[in-house]
Fold this sequence. Notes:
Layout: H1 4-31, H2 36-61, H3 71-97, H4 100-107, H5 110-122, H6 128-144, H7 156-178, H8 185-208, H9 216-239, H10 245-251, H11 255-266, H12 273-306
Helix pairs in contact: 1-9, 1-11, 2-3, 2-8, 2-9, 3-4, 3-7, 3-8, 4-7, 5-7, 5-10, 6-12, 8-9
Amino acid sequence: xxxxxxxxxxxxxxxxxxxxxxxxxxxxxxxxxxxxxxxxxxxxxxxxxxxxxxxxxxxxxxxxxxxxxxxxxxxxxxxxxxxxxxxxxxxxxxxxxxxxxxxxxxxxxxxxxxxxxxxxxxxxxxxxxxxxxxxxxxxxxxxxxxxxxxxxxxxxxxxxxxxxxxxxxxxxxxxxxxxxxxxxxxxxxxxxxxxxxxxxxxxxxxxxxxxxxxxxxxxxxxxxxxxxxxxxxxxxxxxxxxxxxxxxxxxxxxxxxxxxxxxxxxxxxxxxxxxxxxxxxxxxxxxxxxxxxxxxxxxxxxxxxxx
Length: 307
């Protein structure tokens, strides 16, 4: 059977790639005249509906005894889910004022934020392996987004929203790793989406009540919900508990090459050799982390068999 850490890493990686695809979709939606409020609300609302239906179908077809979630566990998950809504809200606001490449760079600050958060919680300095991987990913991030070669004027609003998006994204990674793990993954995702819908509704409804283009629900809402609200929470809640917060934050960096590749194939954006080299550097750092982590978890078993 697949090693639990490796399995968790793959699930988280797929979830991160799903998030990476959103950048291209949102960029197209903006070009068609939709607002950040419409994009964010349609994504979270349809994701909530879909997750509700999935849970209802699963609960009826499942032959396993139903594990009831306590009110305390539900409340924790709802509060944790606000980080999902905040991440979408902040990130979509950020890319309104700054280039998408800069927005992705800012969101990827969750890499070092996650490692720092883990170090603070565990009260120990991160291993040299993680520090080296973080440095490699950050260097690859700068290369992959071609930031150094772009003459851009950055607005403080965009920078601020981007940093807030990275902070809330770090919170999402932490919460999916630690909050109410006794609750099945499907139900954890549902209650977290309840929290996401509450915070997004609170932030967007004032503007949407004045103007809302309903057609976004079927034009872009379904796609955005699938890749931004349904798949990532399901994959994160299933995969994150199998790995630690720092490793989870590092693996989510795959979101960057996913975003660049989709932009290359769908939007026909030119990607220089420096950008391809940066993508390769990020992927190699992630692979190295997973291989070493996998070997370290298998070592005690192999040692015990030799004794």
